[in-house]
Design a protein that fits this description.
D-Maltodextrin-Binding Protein, domain 2, SBP, three-stranded antiparallel sheet, Extracellular solute-binding protein, four-stranded mixed sheet, alpha/beta, 2 domains
């Protein structure tokens, strides 16, 4: 799904420092033997992406210098769901490629990714992997088939200043949807500002419906991705909550077609008090839209009523897969490259500090929490390394950080997620525009449309 990306300015601002400082930083180590190994690596930026390409090339050179027995052959190939199977069968995919989290289970089931279990142990990379994200790239026997390198989870973003004005504690955001409803009405009554809003168009309505359904204990697709399962009582409850907040409480913003871009602008302007989003909404709301950093807050994703093992929060991000066609030596080289190119800031203090300094110098946020792809001790150490460069109010993210170990993460739908989200946009929009909204009927109509797509 569309995410708040690190801005190009950050990449341009840091690349010169990174190329000069990190090229000398090695965490790859020597190859396990004198055997010469060659692998192809994907995701090389194109020539028009000058800053990113310079950094990528610097990483290639630094890695090969630290690992003289390994030769990397970069390719500009990026993951494309529509061509992946054909490229894999034809042998045109690189040995290492970044793919979406949504693909993990299908890659494993279809034997399209190498089993990295033993290699992760022998290289030590497995020791630093985060348990929750590692589980998402593992099979039922605990074998690991990819390395997560970026991840996010949806929480509740809120305006701390509006909480204070409404007599609410800005350090204690709501943790349940009942509390969200109560607080949204208090804010509306006390300040006149809409207490709540969420994305509802351009597939983002379906994306947020999925996040809400998960938080109530519902699901959107069957485990094998072959049919829609969102026509369930939990999903109906989620939609009913939004509908009643809008038409009974009057606490939901009038715009029923919000996207990330438009909602972030209204949130930054103080026109909306709460919305489901990931912590990196800070980057847009503050950096681009001028929100006071002190007003920005984020807590964990609110949960629906009761307590169920099925409740959780939506997650997404990127994983690195390795071709199942490589031999053991190539597999080792691939994991070392992944650790060096994507994870070295968690293993090298100099790399972490260099990146943080350059990012801060370019005026971009340092220290915005994210769902960590490494274990808690490694992530804590990383934050200790960069503490002098952190330029965001960490205390405003405390409620979100506190929930990371207690709220399960659930990946996005694995099959045709964007088409599913598009169909569910209409359901979310109906909940926000129809006073006599019938969630069961709307979900049933959407299921018919989605099942036709999933089984074609």
């Amino acid at each position: 799904m569309k995410r708040t990306a690190l801005r190009t300015a950050a990449a341009i601002g840091t690349v010169a420092v990174l190329a000069a400082g990190l090229a000398a930083c090695s965490s790859g180590g020597q190859a396990a033997s004198d055997q010469k190994v060659t692998i192809t690596v994907g995701d090389r930026p194109t020539k028009d992406q000058k800053a990113a390409l310079a950094q990528y090339n610097a990483d290639i050179a630094a890695f090969e210098k630290a690992n003289p027995n390994i030769t990397l052959q970069p390719k500009t190939v990026t993951w494309d769901a529509t061509t992946f199977d054909a490229q894999l069968a034809g042998g045109s995919l690189p040995d290492v490629l970044s793919v979406a989290f949504t693909e993990a289970k299908s890659l494993i089931a279809n034997k399209q990714a190498a089993d990295l279990t033993d290699t992760l142990k022998s290289t030590g990379v497995g020791k630093i992997m985060g348990a929750s994200t590692k589980k998402l790239v593992s099979d039922d026997n605990g074998h690991v088939y990819a390395v997560p390198t970026t991840a996010y989870s949806i929480g509740l973003v809120y305006n701390r200043d509006l909480f204070t004005k409404a007599g609410l504690d800005p350090d204690k955001p709501p943790t349940t949807w009942d509390e969200v409803r109560t607080d949204a009405k208090k804010i509306k009554d006390a300040t006149g500002v809409s207490g709540y809003a969420q994305f509802a168009s351009q597939n983002q309505g379906g994306w947020m419906f999925t996040a809400m359904s998960y938080s109530y204990g519902g699901r959107v697709e069957s485990e094998n991705g072959k049919k829609a399962v969102f026509d369930n009582a939990k999903s109906e409850e989620a939609l009913k909550t939004v509908n009643e907040m809008k038409f009974q409480d009057g606490s939901v913003a009038p715009n029923s077609l919000y996207t990330q871009d438009t909602l972030y602008k209204d949130f930054a302007a103080g026109k909306v008090a709460m919305m489901p989003a990931a912590p990196d909404a800070y980057n847009t709301a503050v950096q681009n839209d001028g929100m006071d950093p002190k007003s920005f807050g984020v807590g964990g994703m609110p949960m629906g009523p009761g307590s169920s093992k099925d409740q959780g929060t939506l997650t997404g991000g990127s994983i690195q897969m390795v071709s199942p066609k490589v031999d053991d030596a190539q597999k080792t080289a691939a994991v070392k490259w992944i650790a060096f190119h994507y994870l070295r800031q968690y293993q090298s203090k100099s790399a972490a500090v260099t990146v943080a300094k350059a990012t801060a110098a370019s005026g971009n946020p340092v220290g915005v929490p994210a769902l960590s792809v490494v274990n808690s001790s490694t992530y804590d150490q990383y934050n200790t390394w960069i503490k002098d460069e952190i330029n965001v109010p960490q205390e405003n993210f405390a409620a979100y950080v506190k929930t990371q170990s207690s709220i399960p993460i659930i990946p996005e739908p694995s099959n045709d997620a964007q088409e599913v989200y598009a169909a569910l946009d209409t359901v979310m929009q109906a909940a926000l525009t129809e006073k006599s909204f019938d969630p069961a009927a709307e979900l049933s109509k959407a299921k018919t449309a989605v099942d036709a797509k999933l089984t074609r």
